[in-house]
Specification:
Elements (H helix, E strand, L loop, with lengths): L10 E5 L2 E4 L1 E4 L14 H13 L4 E3 L7 H14 L8 E6 L11 H15 L4 E6 L9 H9 L7 E7 L3 H9 L4 E7 L11 H8 L2 E5 L24 H13 L2 H18 L3 H10 L4 E7 L3 H8 L8 H13 L17 H5 L8
Parallel strand pairs: 3-4, 3-10, 4-5, 5-6, 6-7, 7-8, 8-9, 9-10
Antiparallel strand pairs: 1-2
The chain binds NADP nicotinamide-adenine-dinucleotide phosphate (NAP).
């Protein structure tokens, strides 16, 4: 399938007979929790129709992304109304029970959560449910994943994925016999925590990585090249979160040095900085797709260029030099975010269903 930018959108197989676009449109930027920006629902659905026709057929949302499952449901209705086949569209959601609810979750709660996502999306089967557990000190992670998995034979969901689940926890889950198809994690030039164990676990189990943070909320783009440290307050929650990652990478100056190299590579291939940053993630081992924020449809035309080139050995070496000097956030997947005395935990919202 060809699009306006002339390149086609490659696909990756996540499960036998189930493939996704290697660039997934992310839904978090469409929630009121992300920023004050008002969403024009009609324009947004129009944009989804156009971009899905161009091959961007895969979307990411969550039960905690306020209003987004419903918005994607409206999009699916519009897609069907145009006589198109919904089998061409893949919608990934998440099951993120509130932190306060973990200790008392029941099988019935899990079934209700799945039914709620089915109703909001207006579908009979969920393509992929990515499961998150806020606190592995609270028992119930394996049991709850088992209850979710038990819904597969009922036809209510096709596959189970995880999000922000560390290597050891994912290993335990797969050893228990649950067929995990994907783990959605942060992965970028600034944050290479998946390389500390998760990528090799995925290589062994056949699960794939679905990566957010590839552009660090937009920091890894022209807009921040050779700019001073941005003023607070930052304009959305993504920037607040990724500003912490920039600091953990080595601070603004080290980040600017990296951006300079990314810019040189972008000029050489006649693409954007964001293209190079996303391309680097896409080429890492175990990565099925990058998820990019879907707030502006014109971005997607630009983002499509990430399929028009490949990084060459010189590019990889130049980027590796920065990576070697800056190991970035410490520990495994989401380890720093789970630290209750740290700055990441302070900005997390762990009770969005109650909220
Ligand atoms: N599982 C999780 O914990 C988790 C966490 C975060 C995100 N996610 C998922 O990942 C998706 C993406 O979120 P993210 O945090 O990774 O954000 P991101 O895609 O790194 O950044 C999104 C921002 O980057 C800007 N952008 C997009 N394309 C660009 C381009 N070509 N050039 C310059 N800027 C560009 C957009 O700005 P404009 O608004 O100006 O277009 C957008 O607001 C979310 O929607 C969500 O589905 C999951």
């Amino acid at each position: 399938m060809r699009s306006e930018a002339g390149a086609s959108v490659p696909r990756a197989e996540l499960a036998p007979g189930y493939s996704i676009a290697r660039l997934i449109q992310g839904g978090w930027q469409l929630t009121p929790d992300h920023s004050d920006r008002e969403i024009d629902r009609t324009a947004q659905i129009d944009s989804f129709l156009r971009t899905a026709e161009a091959g961007f057929t895969t979307f990411d949302c969550a039960d905690i992304y306020t209003g987004v499952e419903k918005l994607f449901g409206e999009f699916l209705r519009a897609w069907r109304a145009g006589g198109r086949d919904t089998d061409r569209i893949q919608i990934h959601t998440k099951y993120v029970p509130d932190l306060a609810a973990l200790a008392t979750l029941t099988r019935a709660d899990v079934a209700r959560a799945v039914d709620r996502s089915l109703a909001r999306l207006g579908v009979e089967r969920l393509d992929l449910v990515q499961f998150h557990w806020w606190d592995h000190g609270v028992p119930g992670f394996l049991e709850t994943a088992g209850w979710l998995s038990d819904l597969i034979p009922t036809g209510k969901l096709r596959s189970i994925g995880l999000t922000n689940v560390a290597t050891a926890d994912m290993r335990e889950l797969t050893a228990s016999g649950i067929n995990v198809r994907a783990n959605q994690v942060q992965y970028s030039l600034l944050d290479r925590r998946p390389e500390r164990g998760l990528s090799s676990l995925c290589a062994k189990t056949g699960a794939r990585l679905l990566c957010y943070g590839a552009l660090a909320g937009g920091f890894l783009s022209e807009g921040y090249l050779r700019t001073p440290v941005p003023h607070e307050p930052l304009s959305n929650r993504s920037l607040v979160k990724y500003r912490l990652i920039v600091e953990e990478y080595g601070g603004w100056k080290a980040f600017q040095n990296l951006l300079d190299t990314v810019a040189q590579i972008a000029r050489k291939h006649e693409v954007s900085l964001a293209n190079v940053a996303a391309r680097w993630v896409l080429e890492r081992s175990g990565v099925a797709a990058v998820i990019l924020g879907a707030s502006r449809s014109d971005r997607l035309v630009e983002n499509l260029r990430l399929f028009s080139f490949e990084l060459d050995p010189d590019d990889r070496r130049a980027l590796e030099r920065h990576c070697n000097g800056h190991p970035g956030p410490e520990g495994d997947i989401y380890e720093r975010e789970r630290d209750r005395s740290g700055p990441h935990w302070a900005i997390l919202r762990t009770g969005l269903h109650q909220g």
